[in-house]
DNA sequence: TTGTATGCGTTATCAT
DNA sequence: ATGATAACGCATACAA
């Protein structure tokens, strides 16, 4: 059903119908009501193609994400964002990337400046440098630029959506898998590998969930937990790591981040048979999952997170649909027997 | 870059450019080459909206799937297909469902007749009634109607794509999870619940993969496997099931289908603590996963399968993109700690 | 308050 | 072999 046909039905011109549809006023009450009635009756849906053609708008979305080396975690959201940019290009969606150094607040602040100068139609941001990210949210609100947050959330940020993970539940899940693997007993090591003070919120929540799970289960009271950190800013951190693993010799290890491959490396080299659970099916972890050195990876689809963030803007800006506020992605359990079907979804 | 602009560059009218783009001939060799060169130079991409508007085509896709009661497996693919039909409606994609009784070949044959009479632009089919499905593929090929297969595959069918699961690997994965849960030892029961002779190909492959995994692992040679069937066509099959479970009293049970909830029911009722692994996060299994009665569910995203099948036709028919031939979906591992994020993806 | 005309980019048809 | 033009449905500027 087209506007023209509706106009004919209502005995008015299509201009009048259009004014009613867009609520531009200048229509008498009676005709407005009549047209509204017909519109509802025929369940009028504007022709997507005609609408897109005449509007011919394009939208610039900026993606403010940490830079990365190949194989690292932040490559994944970037991939998803790029793929979505490609798929949605025909609808006028353009994505401009701004990469910052996650260990350097100043670099984030500089990139924020560049983003704001661009006056984009939407911003995708990652709250890795939390304090500055919160400030950015406030500025975007006053500038009336819609934004969405991926990875981890900022409460009451005013974003159109959050797309990410439930980090606490991720930790609980890890605890379930690891404790099952060690037969519900033994010594378990929670090993955090950090390289700055900024983005350990997620690590912290995962550890919390992990411990919570073990403490709440009556049958797992025999498990002994040891919590240790390794700081990548120390020059000898790799030796530290090795010393810890050999010295502690636990039955299971949980690394609440994508850096589990560093541990896997040591286990392989030293031929240590220790159950190992970590996060994120990044390239660096892939071989260790395939070899069974890492027993389980918990993955929250970072690629999909990036993709959905862009797609959400498409829905929000182009099709004017409402978008979900909070979008928690599934916590995928990945192991030697199913990892091969998890790449490039 | 529009056709008009390209025409100006080439000093011809836009009609000529159009003839070159669509290779309709009636263009001199020199001008054709010149235009082709410019087209490549500017990387011309037709405006999606204008194209859609002027073509104004609509496509009818038929979905030939088994009927179901609420909460059963086949509800999932149907849901995905419906969702895709809704999302892609604006692009002229219309889906017509034909539900058949999976225990009655005749009903399938009747529905096939109806499908063919409709002369659809595409067919989505499920090879549950394998023999008849193979015949249908042949007829669709001669009628030049593109079709795609979901769930389980038919070799060399000539489909534009297959979207489904790797059933053997699914069985292997189940074996890994269940054997880990029983501590790598004990008695394990493979329990198939059937109600016809048609669709046990998937069950068979899963069982095969399951046994294969156990036999190939040196450390799992202590595990004793018992294989049993329950036939739902017997009036007293529920009692049979109960007798088996109580009589065998195994350490772990693998039900290679979505019907694992029937076993879970008995375990709950009889308060039996037996490790249980099955397939498909259908509504009927949901409460048992939440309660921890079912330890692991392996799910191959049946909803996504349906969605992708329709989306593939959109790509194939509307945007004329190439589509993937074989599309194996990830084997998701679902358990008490992560099931809540797997519904309505 | 209402109606009309123009254009968006592509396709397809009709003249030349 | 080439060019001109109408049509798709919608949005909008402008005329009445």
From TrEMBL, chains A, B:
Pfam families: LacI (PF00356), Peripla_BP_4 (PF13407). Keywords: DNA-binding, Transcription, Transcription regulation. InterPro entries: Cro/C1-type_HTH (IPR001387), HTH_LacI (IPR000843), Lambda_DNA-bd_dom_sf (IPR010982), Peripla_BP_I (IPR028082), SBP_2_dom (IPR025997). It comes from Autumnicola tepida. This is Substrate-binding domain-containing protein. Residues 1-55 form the HTH lacI-type domain. Residues 1-45 form the HTH cro/C1-type domain. Signal peptide: none annotated. The lineage of its organism: Bacteria, Pseudomonadati, Bacteroidota, Flavobacteriia, Flavobacteriales.
């Amino acid at each position: 059903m087209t506007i023209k046909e509706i106009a004919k039905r209502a005995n008015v011109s299509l201009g009048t119908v259009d004014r009613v549809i867009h609520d531009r006023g200048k229509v008498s009450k009676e005709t407005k009501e009549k047209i509204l009635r017909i519109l509802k009756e025929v369940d009028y849906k504007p022709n997507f193609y005609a609408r897109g053609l005449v509007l011919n708008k394009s939208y610039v979305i900026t993606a403010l994400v940490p830079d990365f080396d190949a194989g690292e975690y932040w490559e994944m959201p970037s991939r998803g964002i790029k793929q979505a940019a490609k798929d949605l290009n025909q609808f006028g969606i353009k994505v401009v990337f701004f990469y910052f150094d996650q260990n350097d607040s100043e670099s984030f602040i500089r990139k924020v400046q560049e983003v704001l100068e661009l006056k984009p139609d939407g911003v995708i941001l990652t709250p890795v440098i939390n304090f500055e990210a919160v400030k950015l949210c406030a500025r975007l609100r006053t500038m009336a630029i819609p934004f969405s947050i991926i990875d981890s959330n900022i409460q009451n940020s005013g974003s159109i959506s959050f797309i990410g993970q439930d980090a606490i539940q991720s930790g609980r899940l890890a605890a379930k898998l690891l404790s099952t693997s060690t037969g519900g007993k033994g010594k378990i090591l929670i090993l955090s590998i950090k390289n700055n003070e900024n983005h350990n919120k997620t690590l912290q929540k995962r550890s919390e969930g992990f411990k919570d799970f073990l403490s709440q289960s009556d049958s797992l009271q025999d498990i002994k937990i040891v919590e240790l950190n390794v700081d990548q800013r120390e020059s000898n951190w790799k030796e530290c790591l090795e010393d810890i693993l050999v010295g502690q010799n636990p039955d299971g290890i949980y690394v609440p981040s994508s850096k589990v491959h560093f541990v896997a490396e040591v286990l392989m080299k030293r031929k240590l048979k220790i159950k190992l659970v970590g996060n994120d099916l990044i390239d660096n972890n892939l071989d260790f999952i395939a070899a069974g050195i890492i027993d389980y990876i918990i993955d929250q689809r970072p690629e999909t997170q990036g993709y959905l963030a862009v797609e959400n803007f498409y829905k929000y800006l182009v099709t004017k649909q409402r978008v979900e506020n909070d979008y928690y992605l599934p916590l995928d359990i990945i192991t030697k027997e199913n990892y091969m079907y998890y790449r490039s979804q």
